[in-house]
Structure formats: C-alpha cells, structure tokens
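Posted in: Protein Modeling Q&A

I'm a second-year student putting together a small comparison for a lab meeting, and my supervisor asked me to include a predicted structure for Small ribosomal subunit protein RACK1. I've never done this before, so apologies if this is the wrong subforum. The sequence is pasted below exactly as I got it from our records. If anyone can share the structure token output, I'd also love a short note on what stands out.
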Amino acid sequence: DKTLRVWDLAAGKTTRRFEDHTKDVLSVAFSVDNRQIVSGSRDKTIKL
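Accepted answer (user: helix_wrangler)
Welcome! Here is the predicted structure, written out as tokens:
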C-alpha cells in the first residue's frame, strides 16, 4: 500500500505512518540511536 508504518507491538497500534513512496516499500533500516529511518521502494527512491 506504499506506506511505511512503525508499530507499538505491545499496544497493537501504529505510532507513525509515512506515505511518501509511490510504489511498494521494499526495505527499511533504523539508525543506531533509533532517531532516523531510511526506506527503499520499488519506485527507485530512498527516503530519510
């Protein structure tokens, strides 16, 4: 659905939702301090 979601698993709820990609998100990585997320998409872009 072209979105990246961060979940609170204990609560079973989405805490953040990113909708910047125009095609499926294929990969996600978090910075060591968990303050940044980078995602890669089938639309051939990365988002920080």
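A couple of things worth pointing out for your meeting: The two ends are 19 Å apart (CA to CA). Residues 4-47 form one domain.
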